[in-house]
Please model this.
Amino acid sequence: MNHSENVIEMVGVEHRYGRDATALAGVDLAIGRGEFVAIIGRNGSGKTTLAKHFNGLLRPTNSHGAVRLRTKDGTTVDTRGTRLHHLAATVGYVFQNPDRQIFHDTCREELEYGPRNLGADPAELAQEVSDSLELVGLAGHEETNPIHLSRGERQRLAIASTLIMGCDVAVVDEPTTGQDRAESRKILDALAHHHARGRTIVIISHDMALVAEYATRVVAMRQGRVLTDGSPAEVFSQREVIQESNIRPPQAAVLAAELGLPGILTVDDAVRAMSESRTAAPSPDASPTHDDKVH
Ligand SMILES: Nc1ncnc2c1ncn2[C@@H]1O[C@H](COP(=O)(O)OP(=O)(O)OP(=O)(O)O)[C@@H](O)[C@H]1O
Ligand SMILES: [Mg+2]
Model:
């Protein structure tokens, strides 16, 4: 995947709600095409405010702060001077509550609505609808009324109806909050399928085990600033930083760090590393003596 081109660039972005609440206190951040980014951080750290800047739902409140998008036609636009529907063609935003964006009586109508408004050919649309339902694990639900879907399935329908618009980037705010393990996985798998087809994915999540498994990059927010930014292994190994931001890294990562196995994120990684360290273990003669113990 080519990460060399940035699809989103933020420079010096501040955002204040009213006079007192500074939600973003100066953020510089670039998102590369093809990344799968997870934004993490404690409640109120500015994650949603940050994400809403990615497609102009919010704009910087300081004059020199800027957010720029690389659009499909290769031009770069500033969100401040560009209409929302134009920005939405590049960055789609899926709200935390899927019911904010589901209005129709069948999944088919729900998915057809946006593309029809853009003048899509109805004959081609039928196939596209079936394909998008399949990509989010809802194959065959064309005629299902969304009210008969579970909350998690509606979340996946909302993802499909945003992505069927053809945006390059999908920003998804807390897609797994309140979902059980199995449903959370289906939602992340739906996003992973789109990622594998070349979309750039940005999620906000409190579920560190899923973040570790799916994201290629983690951006941790604290008090309106980027606290740390790197691969999941890099971010979750920064123990003090993590404690400060009240983030609980994946349990497998915590346990592995205690066992002296840094860079482990999942139980599978841990099992592999432990079996490798067993095979590579020195003979009993070479084991450390009492005097070698580190105090
Ligand atoms: N509409 C608003 N009006 C006033 N203050 C707001 C508004 N939305 C957010 N804030 C404040 O801005 C700060 C950042 O909020 P934001 O919603 O971006 O955080 P968050 O990291 O998404 O939190 P959560 O994990 O709870 O969703 C918080 O102090 C919040 O109270
Ligand atoms: Mg939020």
Confidence is low (pLDDT under 50) at residues 286-295.
